[in-house]
Design brief:
Blueprint: E1 4-9, H1 16-25, H2 27-35, E2 38-43, H3 49-55, E3 60-63, H4 80-85, E4 90-93, H5 96-102, H6 106-118, E5 122-127, H7 131-135, H8 139-150, E6 162-166, H9 180-198, H10 200-203, E7 207-211, H11 219-223, E8 230-233, H12 240-250
Parallel strand pairs: 1-2, 1-8, 2-3, 3-4, 4-5, 5-6, 6-7, 7-8
Helix pairs in contact: 1-3, 6-8, 8-9
Length: 251
C-alpha cells in the first residue's frame, strides 16, 4: 500500500529567516507524519533550501526548478550537483507557472526528469490542463501528452522515484476546485498511462498527487478517493498552523 504524501510549494514566498523558523518549528509534526506513514516536504525558494534542510533534516526538500546540465552558461539556473551538495532531495518539474511564464514545454521537462532520476534524485512532475482545454473536453488528451512526452526514455532510471502531481491549471490559486470525482477520474487515467509505459508493478509504486486550491477543509475529501495518494499544496502550506492542520486531516 502506498503511503500518503504532502508537499508544500512555497513559490516566491518566505525569506531565509522565515524559512528557517518554519523548519525548526515543524520538527515535531514531521515526526508525527513519519509515525503515520505520511511523506512530508516543502519546496522553498533557492535561498531557503539549505536553511530548511539544516533546520529540519527529516523534512523532504524540493527545489522549485532545476537545469538538465551539471554546469555551464545558464544564467539564473541551478544544477543537480549543486542541489545535492546541500542535501536537497529532488525538484519540481513542469509546474504550470513554469510552463506558462517561462515557456517550458514537455520536451524540456523530459530532460529535467531524466537528469533528476539519473542523479538519484526525486522528480515531482506536474501535469494539468488549462480552463480552455478543460471546457473543450481536452483534459485527457493534454495530460496524456504531458505524461508520454515528459516521461519518455526513463524506464531504466527507476520510475519509482517519480511523483506525479495532477494540477488542473484553472484551479491553481483561483479558489476553484476540480471536484474529487473529476480529480480521481484524471488520476486514475494517469495511473493507466503509467501502467502502459512501465508495467503494473512499477506504476503501482508511483505516487500521484492532486493539487489545486487544496486546503485543510477539503484535503481529506480528496485523499479518500481511489488512486489519490496525496496533495501538492500552495498557499495553505505557507503558515505552520495551516500546514499542520493539513497533515492532521490526512491522518
Amino acid at each position: 500500500m502506498r503511503s500518503k504524501v504532502l508537499i508544500g510549494n512555497w513559490k516566491m514566498h518566505k525569506s531565509v529567516s522565515e524559512a528557517r523558523s518554519f523548519a525548526k518549528k515543524s520538527v515535531e509534526f514531521v515526526t508525527k507524519a513519519q509515525a503515520h506513514r505520511v511523506i512530508i516536504g516543502v519546496a522553498p525558494t533557492y535561498l531557503g533550501l539549505k536553511a530548511v534542510k539544516q533546520s529540519n533534516p527529516s523534512m523532504l526538500v524540493f527545489s522549485q526548478n532545476v537545469h538538465y546540465e551539471n554546469q555551464g552558461a545558464f544564467t539564473g539556473e541551478i544544477s543537480t550537483p549543486m542541489l545535492q551538495d546541500i542535501g536537497v532531495d529532488g525538484a519540481l518539474v513542469g509546474h504550470s507557472e513554469r510552463r506558462q511564464y517561462f515557456k517550458e514545454d514537455n520536451l524540456f521537462c523530459n530532460k529535467k526528469v531524466i537528469k533528476l532520476l539519473s542523479s538519484g534524485m526525486t522528480a515531482l512532475y506536474c501535469v494539468g490542463e488549462t480552463l480552455g482545454e478543460y471546457e473543450l473536453g481536452q483534459t485527457k488528451a493534454v495530460v496524456a501528452n504531458q505524461i508520454r512526452v515528459g516521461l519518455s526514455g526513463i524506464p531504466s532510471l527507476d520510475p519509482t522515484r517519480l511523483i506525479i502531481a495532477y494540477e488542473p491549471v484553472w484551479s491553481i490559486g483561483t479558489g476553484k476546485n476540480a471536484s474529487p470525482s473529476i480529480a480521481t477520474e484524471v488520476i486514475t487515467f494517469i495511473r493507466e498511462l503509467l501502467e502502459d509505459m512501465f508495467g503494473t508493478k512499477i506504476s503501482n509504486e508511483i505516487h500521484i498527487l492532486y493539487g489545486g486550491s487544496v486546503k485543510p477543509n477539503n484535503i481529506a475529501e480528496y485523499l479518500t478517493m481511489p488512486n489519490i495518494d496525496g496533495a501538492l499544496v500552495g498557499g495553505a502550506s505557507l503558515e505552520l498552523e495551516s500546514f499542520e492542520t493539513l497533515l492532521n486531516n490526512i491522518i
